[in-house]
Amino acid sequence: MISSPNQLKDQALKTLENKRESRSAEFKEKEIEAKKKLAEETKMKAEQNKRQAEKNKYQIDRLQLYLGEPYQLNDKITIAQPTVGELIRIGEQKAYSVVHVFVANTTMYRLFLWDMGIDWNKFTDFELFQLLCPTLQQENTAFLFGDIDFSKLQRYKKQIGETGEPVVVLYDPEQDFEIDNETYNKIAWYVRNLFNIFPKVEKAKGKFTKQSIIDEDRMNYERHKNDPYQSTLLPLISSCLNHPGFKYTKQQLINVGIVEFMDSVQRLQVYESTTALLKGIYSGFVDGKNIKNEQLDFMRDLSH
Question: How many CB atoms lie within 10 A of CB 186?
Fold first, then answer.
């Protein structure tokens, strides 16, 4: 059967319409993907800017940090740097459970806060620390803070200035020891740098969005709550001790500060990636025009 001119025309128009719709859907998909990528890059840039602002505000001598020098925050607070051996002797899980109290933000504890009737978006990290502080026993925090007993700290209202609004601080009369919001932020920033733990910040707007996030967190918690503890340090120590470029023996590593060790882990990764790029460029398998000079420098600054 021979199609009429009108039928051929209709078929051609239908084919064109299908192609147009297919291209439109493809374009929309690419547009959504591009917007998602832009949002992720914007979020990452905002996090980097925030971290840089904190770095500028709370100056830390990174050379002293690397060499394991204790950090004198004020006349009451000195933060020591544990060695790899100390963390092993204390118990990695026990030590990091203490560390997480000081580095924690409200995003990490949003399910816990939500079940208490608290919106994590409207709660500060210092307020969260006030809730967690009573769990810190002196014998558990001694490897960082010596004789300070955080469990004795109580919430007090303190007026700033003659006519200023009262603010909440943590204070213990027996130790004559006080932590206000600024002091807490300095402690948190230093401990985060000490252990290279910078928790992500996730805020949400709208009741439905918040509930969806909480529901997902609850499912993840139920799925993994009985999982055995997985060591963070073991695969790093094992990898380094078996790498030909690592200079410490097992016995020597015990006396290495945690910052120096984590820096060694990062530096070995950078060295390997830099070497691979250079070999790829010289062999012609990698286009050197698309590689930034910084990526070819294994001695570059790792603090960014």
Answer: 20
Percentage, residues of the chain above pLDDT 90: 61
Size of the chain in residues: 304
Phi, psi of 83 (to 5 degrees): -90, 170
**Other C-beta atoms lying within 10 Å of the C-beta of residue 157:** 9
Mean pLDDT of 2-29: 72
pLDDT in tens, 161-184: 666 778 999 999 998 899 999 999
Q: Where are the beta strands (DSSP E) in the chain?
A: 71-72, 78-79, 154-159, 166-172, 177-179
Residue 169 has φ and ψ, to the nearest 5°, of -130, 165
pTM: 0.77
Mean pLDDT of the chain: 87
For the stretch 97-113, pLDDT in tens is 999 999 999 999 999 99
The DSSP H or E segment spanning 233 is helix 233-241
Asked if 194 and 79 count as a contact pair (C-beta separation under 8 A), the reply is yes
- The residue whose two tokens read 């021979």 is 2
Cα separations in angstroms, 151 against 82, 155, 294: 21, 11, 46
CA distance 104 to 126: 10
Q: What are phi and psi of 149, to 5 degrees?
A: -110, 100
Q: What are phi and psi of 75, to 5 degrees?
A: -70, -10
Number of Cβ within 10 Å of residue 256's Cβ equals 17
For residue 227, give both structure tokens: 């999982």
Q: How far is Cα of residue 28 from the mean position of the Cα atoms in its chain?
A: 33
Q: What DSSP line would sit under 157-210, residue for residue?
A: EEE-SSSPPEEEEEEETTTTEEE-HHHHHHHHHHHHHHHT---------SHHHH
